[in-house]
Structure of Sec-independent protein translocase protein TatB:
Amino acid sequence: MFDIGFTELLLVGLVALVVLGPERLPGAVRTTGLWIGRLKRSFANIKAEVEREIGADEIRRQLHNERILDLEREMKQSIMPPGNSGASAPSSPPSPAAEPSAAAPAKPAGDAETAREDVPAAASEKPSAPTERPNP
C-alpha cells in the first residue's frame, strides 16, 4: 500500500522517541496500533457488506430475468398454435386447460397459469382475425 522501507520506519521511530520521550512512547505505539486495527476491521466489514450487496443484486437481477424469459415463453406458446400453419387444424389434442374435463385434476394455485396474471389480458390472448363489417 505505502512504499515505506525499514530505514523510513526507523527514522519515524527515532523522531517519536525524541518528541514523546521514553515514558510515553510505548503507550502511544499501543494506542496507534489499536486505532489502525480498528480502521482495518471497519474497512474489511464495509468491503464485505458491499460485496454481499453486490452479490444479492446479481441474484435478484438473475431471478427477474429468468421470470421474464418464462413469461415470454408462455406468451409465445399461447400465441403460436401447434403445427406448421395457423390455417390447418391442430395436430395435437386440445390441452386440458382449454377443455376442462372431469378426469383432469384441478391445478394448484402456484401453477404457471397463475404467473400469467401479471401480463395484460390483450397480450396473453391469441390475436383474432379481422372481421368483415357489413357495408350500409
